[in-house]
């Protein structure tokens, strides 16, 4: 190669590399609307959940369906269809390996009727609770909406696409491919197999890349001029006896454009007994503050005898001549969050978090919403005395957020960024968008007490500093009423992101991934690491993951890796560290990894999935669950003076007084 040519090639290479390193803080598109679909005097909601028709594209030809316009007619005309439940992940529904491990696009369709009565004077919206990972939607063959990002809702107006008093068809193409610029990241490669080549999806994160229409699909109506956004923020004063609700409402539609000043909202607040406690009207700006006397604060579970107290806020939109245009109702919890470099408080009381990292995961359904499972999970969370969980590693269903509000379970709300690396502009933009969508969806939930901007990002890498400065500051610009955290596993010595966070969370697996089996190398290491994080950044610290894989029913004494005894002993060694740390006020919480066993990609380190659950995948307790329950309630008793359940300790013997050992009473 001529010298000039090789210098040109090297020059271009360097330019390319440098460009990849430059990331700038660009504006990202913000989401609109998407209030949870609720019926009211002015709105109707219809579910499209049920059994849909399903076909799979060829992995080597993922765009064939688009080229051949499979959306133009029933899918059954293009390919043999199979039945597929919605909501559910499609992966574990059949017995086919090819569908479980499918990479690329799959298609769903179904028919539905739209009543004639929906034709007049209103709008119809189509809303998906979530589709993983990318969705393309057609109504009667016309493109309706496209959305990229799992675990988050999206919607579009379909008024003009529907046939009223007639049958309609909805078609969805879903693509599960993860690449370096998706959130989360993955890699797709073409690899030789016995018969030719095959497409392989790989990813570093430790949960199965379940895909499909994961949450409910709804059609709902709104009036022509309607309440599009409601944003509230609450606080308490006067010893928590007076509550304030700052509200702002955004309206869209015909009247909104024509006669903005004639619009106002009437707000009525009802307490739990249904008694109206506030009734007020806004000015034309549709924002203001409600004052609630004799306030009932929202308290976390076990922090108060009446946790999860919710009011109902009725928002009426009125137009010219006081005409009632739209009504939407929202549950509201009154609480104040505050934090400093040493503490996190709710309603002025310091919080000690005791909880879990979790997954939305179960047999057959994968990540599909299942109300039975959700209610069982909350029953277990309350049974064990936990007061919090992190939505590791993506946003959980809106139904579960509402449930957490009601039951007083605090949530560290995480966006879908896991193992983030190879920082680049496209990734940054999407990461910010995932947080924007998350905050937009969850900002009104009292249960959400913190935003987690990533799980185990590679925060030692080049560019991590600028990248996380942008992500953390963007999050704060969207909501400054909650602290920002990230669960970090990079050694504290190398980490470049912690200084942009309000609270440091760290994940570490002493006696499991490091010093496997060494019970004598847990306690001091946990104390030392938490202390080092605190010293480095001067912020409150949480241990956001610790644990050990445990095969239910495997008992080995003395404890040995994978046995139930081992899990209990690992926990106990951590408890000792946490108790030493709790004396230093800046250590504010402990989160076990994981609530329940869950499925992962196939690997020789995983026996049917990750088994670090305190509960099995079928939601039954392992031995360590009973130990954890005793600790969590004991903490609740010490920190928040909660009462203990009667069955917390098993009766053993009545020795007519206390039992003594060398160091005192047992
Ligand atoms: C972690 C990850 C989590 C894994 C866990 C494990 O640090 O955050 O996603 O499942 O470790 O068990 O390896």
UniProtKB/TrEMBL annotation:
Residues 225-335 form the Glycoside hydrolase family 2 immunoglobulin-like beta-sandwich domain. One of its GO terms (biological process) is glucuronoside catabolic process. Its main location: other. It comes from the Eukaryota. It catalyses: a beta-D-glucuronoside + H2O = D-glucuronate + an alcohol. GO terms for cellular component: extracellular space; lysosome. The keyword Hydrolase applies. Residues 341-633 form the Glycoside hydrolase family 2 catalytic domain. Residues 45-223 form the Glycosyl hydrolases family 2 sugar binding domain. Keywords: Glycoprotein, Glycosidase, Hydrolase, Lysosome, Signal. It is found in: Lysosome. Belongs to the glycosyl hydrolase 2 family. This is Beta-glucuronidase.
């Amino acid at each position: 190669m001529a010298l000039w040519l090789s210098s040109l090639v090297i020059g271009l290479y360097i330019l390319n590399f440098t460009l990849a390193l430059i990331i700038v803080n660009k504006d990202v598109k913000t989401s609109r609307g998407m209030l949870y679909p609720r019926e009211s005097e002015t709105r109707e909601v219809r579910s499209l959940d049920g059994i849909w028709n399903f076909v799979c594209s060829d992995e080597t030809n993922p765009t064939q369906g688009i080229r051949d316009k499979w959306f133009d007619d029933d899918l059954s005309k293009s390919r043999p269809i199979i039945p597929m439940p919605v909501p559910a992940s499609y992966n574990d529904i059949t017995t086919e390996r090819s569908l479980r491990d499918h990479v690329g696009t799959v298609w769903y369709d179904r028919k539905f009727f739209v009543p004639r009565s929906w034709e007049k004077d209103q709008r119809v919206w189509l809303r998906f609770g979530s589709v993983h990972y990318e969705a393309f939607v057609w109504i009667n063959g016309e493109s309706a909406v496209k959305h990229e990002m799992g675990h988050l809702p999206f919607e579009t107006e379909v008024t003009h696409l529907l046939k009223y008093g007639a049958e309609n068809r909805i078609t969805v193409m879903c693509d599960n491919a993860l690449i370096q610029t998706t959130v989360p990241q993955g890699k797709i490669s073409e690899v030789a197999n016995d018969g030719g080549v095959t497409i392989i999806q790989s990813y570093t994160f430790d949960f199965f890349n379940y895909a499909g229409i994961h949450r409910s699909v709804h059609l709902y109506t709104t009036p022509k001029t309607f309440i599009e956004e409601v944003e509230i923020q609450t606080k308490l004063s006067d010893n928590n006896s007076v509550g304030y609700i700052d509200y702002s409402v955004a309206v869209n539609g015909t009247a909104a454009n024509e006669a903005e000043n004639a619009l106002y909202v009437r707000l009525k607040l009802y307490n739990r007994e249904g008694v109206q406690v506030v009734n007020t009207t806004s000015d034309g700006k549709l924002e203001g503050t409600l004052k609630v006397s004799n306030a009932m604060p929202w308290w976390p579970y076990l922090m108060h005898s009446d946790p999860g107290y919710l009011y109902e806020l009725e928002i009426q939109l009125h137009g010219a001549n006081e005409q009632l245009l739209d009504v939407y109702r929202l549950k509201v919890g009154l609480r104040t969050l505050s934090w400093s470099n040493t503490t996190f408080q709710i309603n002025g009381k310091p919080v000690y978090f005791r909880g879990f990292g979790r997954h939305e995961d179960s047999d057959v359904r994968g990540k599909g919403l299942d109300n039975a499972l959700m209610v069982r999970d909350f029953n277990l969370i309350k049974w064990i005395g936990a007061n919090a969980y992190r939505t590791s590693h993506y946003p959980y269903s809106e139904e579960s957020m509402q449930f957490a509000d009601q039951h007083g379970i605090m949530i560290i709300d995480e966006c879908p960024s896991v193992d983030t690396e190879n920082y680049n502009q496209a990734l940054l933009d999407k990461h910010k968008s995932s947080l924007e969508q998350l905050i937009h969806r969850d900002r009104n939930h009292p249960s959400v007490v913190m935003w987690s901007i990533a799980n185990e990002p590679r925060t030692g890498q080049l560019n991590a500093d600028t990248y996380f400065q942008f992500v953390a500051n963007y999050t704060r610009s969207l909501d400054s009423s909650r602290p920002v955290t990230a669960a970090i596993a990079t050694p504290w010595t190398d980490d470049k992101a912690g200084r942009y966070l309000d609270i440091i969370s760290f994940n570490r697996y002493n006696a499991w991934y490091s010093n496997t089996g060494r019970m004598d190398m847990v306690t001091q290491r946990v104390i030392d690491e938490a202390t080092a994080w605190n010293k480095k950044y001067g912020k409150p610290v949480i241990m956001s993951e610790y644990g050990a894989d445990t095969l239910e029913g495997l008992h080995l004494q003395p404890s040995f890796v994978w046995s139930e005894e081992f899990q209990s002993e690992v926990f106990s060694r951590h408890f000792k560290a946490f108790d030493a740390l709790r004396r230093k006020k800046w250590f504010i919480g402990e989160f076990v990894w994981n609530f329940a066993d869950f499925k992962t990609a196939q690997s020789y380190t995983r026996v049917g999935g990750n088994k670090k659950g305190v509960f099995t995948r079928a939601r039954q307790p392992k031995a360590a669950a009973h130990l954890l329950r005793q600790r969590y309630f004991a903490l609740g008793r010490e920190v928040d003076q909660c009462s203990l359940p009667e069955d917390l300790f098993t009766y053993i013997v009545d020795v007519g007084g206390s039992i003594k050992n060398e160091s005192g009473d047992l």
